[in-house]
Records
---
Amino acid sequence: MSLDIYLRDLTLASRNVIRQRRRSLFALAIISGGVIALMLAGGFVQWIFDNIRETTIRAQLGHVQVVRPGYFEKGIADPYSYLLPKNDPLFEQLSQAPGVLTVTPRLVFTGLISHGDASIGFSGEGVDPVRERDLSKDLHIVEGEALSADEPQGIIVGEGLAANLGVKAGDTVVLLSASKKGSLSAVECRIRGLFMTSTKAYDDAFLRAPLPIAQQLSKVSGATNWLILLKHTDDTDSFISQAKTAHQRNDIQFVAWHELADFYKKSVALMSRQIGGVELLIAFIIVLSISNTLSMAVIERTGEIGTVMALGVKASGVLRTFLLEGLLLGVIGGLIGIAIGSTLAAIISHFGIPMPPAPGMARGFTAQININSRILAEAMTMAVLTTLLASIVPAWKASRMNIVDALRHQR
């Protein structure tokens, strides 16, 4: 079939869309409304995904963790059996690798934190205050100050842990921990500040201390893991692949952040199913509305359809014309919806959306709407496919009309 026939049918379809203004405007309102709803809902969920991801990376996990093989399977219960050496040249090599912002050591330790007559168990991380500045930007200090190399005995405590112990910034506490050999060590520290992350369970149990304090309590040198912060999150997997190729060692393991972010993965899985349900509902509404609109158009134009078929237009030509009308409505409605949806997303993001605390979080937050290319593509695809799908039945009915009965319609 020649291109001229398709161009002719497209021209005829566009004239029919323009000619049926009231019906076309109603259809465009339905389509664009569905696109706007999908964009705003999808953009809101995407912002939550991005925010949880970056907070998890820049407050807890980093982009990549370097550990001994088996550390995350067995080392959590016995971290001192999986220590990385203190002066391994690999540390500096990774620090100078392309795309790396910083590499910082951490030493995991556990014990009791005491204040007055109260004591409570904690999970702790010994960190380098200087190297942690970039990595811990999303570790929000809600009271007091962050860790500093100028105060070697200063620590920061999760606000949930501080509330359970009944302490605040400026209080003096005692950390008690078992060393690698089982002996007990104690250090008196001052709470420099209280922190909050996106995960309430983390804030209820964790504290951070300068690395020398953790090493003093544990009576070890070195660290349990090295955290690598990259310039771009999307480079994580490629960096690990390149690092494994460049540093072929059996005594270390590179672990990506997304393998450790259990809360993030569960949140993405849950909310993806929810937004998928919203997409199906919007698509169903569009299909019903457009199908009804085009079916009414077929009834109103029965005499017209009979006339064009009597003039020699084949049933396939009538079918193509109605399908192209639906396709045009989908494209135009999708473009209108994308334009309005993008504008609304920018306005809403400018003012923010106050939100209550989500499950697993201690505080509310101000959300935004993040529209990316994937959401735009999904919105446009939904608009085109649903209208095209909705056009099939009316187009088939129009093409199957009997010419004589169509000419006698309403006469």
---
Amino acid sequence: MKRGNKNRIKKDPPVRVIKQEIRQTALAGGNFADKVNAYRDQHAHALFSSLGRLVATPFISIMTIAVLAIAIALASGFYILVSNLQQLTTNLETSNQISLFLRDDVSDAHAKKLVDSIKLDNNVKSVKLITKEQALEEFKTYSGFGVAINALATNPLPIVLQVLPKNALNDKEALSALLKSFQQSPEVDFAQMDLQWVERLQSIISLARLFANLLSVLLGAAVLFIVGNSVRLELHNRRDEVVISKLVGATDAFIRRPFLYTGFWIGFISGVLAWFIVAILMLILNNSVEELSGLYGGNFHLLFLNFTETIVLIFLSSFLGVLGSWAVLFFQLQYTKAS
């Protein structure tokens, strides 16, 4: 080796750091505590040095993290959209009731006993009894034919039972079986429920959930490729350092460590930034959604990521960053060995 190259290597701070860390590991001896301390110091140095390299190139780092944050925010946003859609369908479930029109010869006392027996069914959430008098008063109030109704000698309206099934939007087969059992009841003259409406709503929810899952997979793959490409460029820029590290005895695990931490920082910061993006969008939409819900007489509130979902979001983004880095490093280091 030429003298100029020797002087350049001696003056190169990364090479001196590599030699010092390798020597520190070798001198740890048989003392387990010393080995643990040396291992901890190496990881701490790789952790903060990788963060320092990201800070040293702010424009490239900001552009990469911004793109990843938008991708993760899109996936999180569609997840929240499906969650709020499910909450909305829970509120709409009250309109998916079964109306049982009883026979004219069924008395109020008999109808009350029938209500008590229906409540014992595990598939029934609640039952509401509407007597003939109540039905007549509602018809007078909302139909506008009160004068014509008063001219009738008898009340033509039947007793009605409004049955609200459990999990009405999740199990169409159970709903059909429950409706059929009511139709076979001797007290029931006619049972009515819009099963097509239930089927359409179930299809919409399933389609939205499938779309959100597919979008999350695609955006997760995009995060892997973007982080992998960023780490590949970083590895290319530090190729001389990697070659010199191998010459002085560094292992592949030692070489991979700072790049894996770089992927971790990129994924972690992107996940945190994505959370803030989604939070700001939810705050912007919250007042408008509540105003719209109030106009329809509802009490709908937007759901946001809870603490567990937030931790999962940040963990997954960090994991994808590390996974993308590891995949690129695995193939790149194998190529370095071959060359």
---
Amino acid sequence: MSANGRIRAAYMQQFAKDELFPLLARNPALEVAAARNAAELRAILPGAELLIANNRFYDEEVGRVVLEHGKDLRWIQYWTAGIERGIRFGMPRGIPVCAAPGVKGPTVAEHAMLLLLASFRRFRAIEQARTKRKWIRDQMHETARTLEGATLAIVGFGAIGQEIARKAKAFDMRVITVTRAGRAGPTVDQAVARDQMHAVLPQADAVVLCLPVEPDTIDLFGDQAFARMKPDALLINVGRGELVDEAALARALAAGRIGGAALDVTVVEPLPKDSPLWGFDNVLISPHCAGCGKDGSERFNAIFAENLRRYRAGEPLVGAIDWEKIADGV
């Protein structure tokens, strides 16, 4: 805490044009400084009680800086839903670490529905035909599909999964959820535990992945999962690239074992130019932009304000994650 009684905070700033930092800077309880890289973070971290972290920013060099120079930290608050890179590259133990659940839920869910609709309604073929000034109405009769009555399997049912389910029901889809413990909800027609995932995959016309990366979710979708999917089913990934064995996905697409894929995330980002996934006409790729949009800053600021109040009052924090158990493989 600074001499004036305000909490000293270091903020990882991702974008040059940043809407969140002015909101944080106006908070009368904070004395906040921003860093755009590891070197800048090293300069502002000593003496900081709070680190406002960014999962995408958090690399090996940042992890070293935080461990070596974050001796005064008492709380780490991510402004992203994911914290897996912090777990991978290291954080001080024994202090609360919070994610920001729901900050990008509506936005990512909208993007998932965009990918689903664009794939089912064959928008890529429409756009390719437009560039050639071709009218392909007859072909669309043969290939376009409707969401009404189709089954969507949502793997992961946190804030993003719940938003996807709510939006899917508005399109009259049947919703199956796959979670660690078989979590259901008012927009869910069937819920199964993750160890039963392969049993329900044959029902799904589309599968959307929106769960975090943990030791038991890496390569969750590989040859065995693709073998259980319908030959015209669509795989959508708005979670993390590591959830999918990309070599197995390429094999499934090449063999026609699934109908297509729509990926907002990949194992390596940007997706390497030599990846075979670029070459499939039935694959949509967006540049990890599902969560992009200005509204996330306002949502995070509301969550952060509540957590700041709780922190100062000694109350449990929203979004706290027992990351040490994950790091230790428990």
